[in-house]
Amino acid sequence: MISEKEKRDNCDSIRSLTSLLCEYTSNPLGVDVAQPRFSWVIEHSERGQFQSGYRVLVASSKKNLDSENGDKWDSGKVASDESMNVVYTGSALESGKTYYWKICVWDKEENMSRWSKLASFEMGLLNPDDWKGKWIEGKGYGESTCFDPFQGKTTKIPYGYLLRKEFSVKKDMLRARVYVSGLGYYELRINGNKIGDSVLEPGWTDYKKRVLYSAYDVSKYLRKGKNVIGIMLGNGRYIKAYGYGSPRALLQLNVEFTDATTESVVTDESWKMGQSPITENSIYNGEVYDARLEESGWDIPFYDDSDWDQARKAEGPGGKLVSQASFPPIKVTKIIQPVEISNPKPGVYVYDFGQNFTGWVRLCLSGTRGSKVNIRYTELLREDGMLNAVPNRGAKATDTYILKGEGKEVYEPRFTYHGFRYVEVTGFPGTPILESVEGRVVHSAVEPTGAFICSNPLINRIHKNVLWGQLSNLMSIPTDCPQRDERMGWMGDAQLVAEEAIYNFDMAGFYTKFLEDIGDSQAEDGSVPDVVPAYWSLYPADPVWGTACVIIPWYLYQYYGDRRILQKYYSGIKRWVDFLSSKAVNHILSYGKYGDWCPPAHIKPVDTPIELTSAWYYYHDALILSKIARILGESDEAKKYSQLSSKIKEAFNKKFFKDDHYATGGQTCNVLPLFLDMVPEDKQEAVLKNLIDDIVAARGTHLNTGIVGTRYILDVLTKYGRVDIAYELAVQTTYPGWGYMLREGATTLWERWEHLVGGGMNSHNHIMFGSIDAWFYKVLAGINIDPAGPGFRRIIIKPYLVGDLNHVSASLKTIKGMVSSNWKKSGRSLVLAVTLPVNTEAKVSVPKFELDNVTIKESGKVVWESGSYIEGTAGITDARENEEYVTFSVGSGSYSFEIECEK
Ligand code: BGC
Hints:
By secondary structure, this protein is of the alpha+beta class. Helices cover 22% and strands 32% of the residues. It contains 17 helices and 50 strands. Strands 21, 22, 26, 27, 28, 29, 32, 33, 34 and 35 form a ten-stranded mixed beta sheet that branches. A hairpin with a 3-residue loop joins strand 48 and strand 49 (885-890). The longest helix has 22 residues, at 610-631. 54% of the residues are buried. It binds beta-D-glucopyranose. Beta-D-glucopyranose binds at residues 480-481, 486, 490, 492-493, 594, 597, 766, 768.
């Protein structure tokens, strides 16, 4: 009999176990989930493979793990194909402890893999009692003003300040961890070093409900002898205008010594506080940095802080402390150089980055002490070459740097950010050159997981604009825009592009946190606000906006197989739907505020009654709730909400359906019921015709939809057999359309279909029309989740060969591994290459080009001929045809299907 070990060593076909994630994160620090979940990806050399079992070991030391001693948890061999979000069920995990884990798996032939490489996770401070320090604050060193457009008033906000603590390390250290939060924004420094590469920490939350902290391994920054911790504090969103206070910080440094003892340094009244060179600082207005106030050496030992003030104990913000461990922090992700510098007026220098983006600039200069340089940021230029700051509305978007006059000086802001393409520099000592300024691209550093390219350059450019626009609007929450005096978590904008974001980026950690924000904001009556966190108290949300609390958990389940999210938010979703029910009359929900926002030529919807979008989303939410209830085994409630949705549908049709169209016959009015199969079957064709007549005949193949209709129109046309029209809309270059924006010079997407340069609602970097990008992946590349197998357990690959396209290539790094679809028409043949990870099954549809009797080969071998499936190819188990496609049932692996597409 061969031993387990021999069997494992024989199994070279399981090539490797990769992407070992704990709570969606590789080797996270500061996990505060009591039972974290593990995921992994299997690479296998054979096709059609799946995992028949797994074993997870979690140990309290590397040594134990190496000797296969899972002293915290040994799952034993579990017969299961689950490779995502496997829940830890070992003994209780302790605060601050590091754990090591590895896995092995069995493939479908019961071959056992080698053990994976070691991975780790470290727990955060799990109990309130683990925090030994106090929130501390300092006195004010001055104040500036900040205008809030929602409240229509100007409030005062304090200047930034510094906190400092000198302490001694007397013994040999084993390791050191810092747990820290500082509101609204902080930068942590130890012995002269900035800790971590995140900026604008912590992520925005409703601080009365939840405050995010970060955990850092700072072992290498400390030394035996004297050490200094410094914290720079700024306002961020922790300001009186939103019901909070003035900046404050909480920190705990835990040092473990080689003699097994520990010591902590925590924030308390023994800390010193001093004035910061960052005086004025506000998200909207920018930052003033007076380099003359720099205290050289303030964050290293032996600095004389005797004239600094004593820090004061502060009230805690009220919210519970939650770790940012699995939440992608904001970072400077890219550095870009300006493409042009101009000098439209004496002393005024304007830089063009050629790209609208979010962040700030770094300025390099030298000059006399006290000279003042202003950096203004805008998205647009005026005809005369000067900045057009009107679209920034109340946001001053200006950083000011006052020189200390000591040779070369380098400045970049810390506690603000801007949305811009152009930068104006005035007061520059001497003449700036192109290299005096460098752009820092800043946003939540979500991992790019999608890639898309095709043979149509316009589509590639739309895709690129969507990527820039999406990233610009991930600033610890999904924002509407990055430039003007809003930058709020408008939930409508967020929900309409969530699928696009998920196709392009790893959004699991980001949305997990945003759902907590939504949960925090839910009111007693079940309503949620339009903006989350509810810095502006806008209750109840327009149903189009509020639906974010339903659709985002649903997507996390669909795309990441995250069942825990459904469990966690099930009651919140129910409360929201019940709230909608309480407002509905005879199953019609008519309240609403914005509806199909920003259709062509308008801000408010014109052709789509607000009550239609509200009533439709009521149906949408009740329907999804009934599905969630079914998944969670709540069969009575599944039935209840499914019956409710049927009644809503009936009422919707009764109220809005008129012979061959809905309500006004506006595009969105017809698109929505078609999308959710609400149209009586015998009327579908008529409604579709009505929609197409409006698009094609009445509007010369243009859409006439706001953000809601735009999200669904391409999907609907595709679903009902008119992908050709969907494609024409996508590549339309005349107004209104994405191509028009690009033609007019857009480098991101606009808030409005029009090219506007005035004030009001006119952002040039809104993401809400970015939903089209998901359609590129789903339809042009044809990569889709199959709802029957969430988390990409089942996949549908069905590309549409449409218009002038002759090549599309897309890939997605999913939680199961890499999925790709790549098709190319060349000469008379089409090749469709597909990659599917282990543990997945797919239906791969190869287009037939309306030809009878097609022959399809896979890697040179005939798999379909004369209307029949030819058995015998590894990984392919079946094939069926319909009028347009031959659809193969396949398992994991890489395939290359080839078909003659012309006679
Ligand atoms: C925001 C939008 C938002 C809308 C709701 C605007 O000011 O920028 O994107 O969804 O208000 O009315």
